[in-house]
Amino acid sequence: MSASDATPEATRPEPAAPEWDAPLAEVPLLWLDLEMTGVDPETDHICEVAALRVQGGEETERLVTLVKPPVPVGASEAIHHISDDALADAPTLETLRAPLDRLLEGAIVVGHTIGFDLKFLRAAAARGWLDPPPTHALDTRLLARRAWHRPSYGLRALAEEHALPLPTHRAEPDAIAAGKLLEVVARELHASTARQLWQSQRRGDPIRFRDDVEATLRRARDEGRAVRVAYRVPGRDPFIDTLEPWAIEGPRVEGRLHERDVRKILRGDRLLWAEPTEQRFSVPEGFVSSCP
After folding, report:
1. Most exposed of 36, 43, 172, 229 (fewest Cβ within 10 Å)?
2. 86 alpha-carbon distance from chain centroid
């Protein structure tokens, strides 16, 4: 396991590459999925790769291939239905270094539970077969857990719910399902850049606002304008309300929610999005913030 694997995402440094701040419609995305011979990157190996480079909703380049692993597929065949015979004449992972590097260049990796796939790519890099993959990626499972309260966050369940192409435990359809799910969840989270999505999927301590959400709240507070917000507590569906942001202290905002007609402290990491309105407000006389 690399140091980046062991670092909690909430404390991991922010992505630095400029593509993370470009409009999602303009940045290259790499929809990625792998099939493996098992679940342990120390002893198991990649046996199928699907890497689809997509920009502005259009696929521009792809690599979809079986990969000959140095070990038998074993019990994993029951999951992906890829047999040792089917892999006998497949290319080895080392031969895919150049095409994968080309697809990854300047792109943001997208996948469902993508951290699992990245561990296998890092293990392959440690063996000298590939170059190290990017540290940061967009995980559609984490994003779905951020946006919705659902009994299952499996890729198939989410694809069925949103009428997306269905995954099949093969690399290409699973990569496509994850890529299409990203488009849905980005709209749900009102995210216009990959950084906003990455900040949305960030978990754990310290509690943080998404940068654009905090900026919207602070500007609205300074101008005396209410904001429309979406807020989700774990285990519940999100609610949408109009908020008067009276005070912002650390990673929390305090003010009045109009529809609920209640004074409330909202945690920054539970605010899905915030949008300004033209509605004016004044902070009540004698208000003292209760934010911890």
Report:
1. 43
2. 33
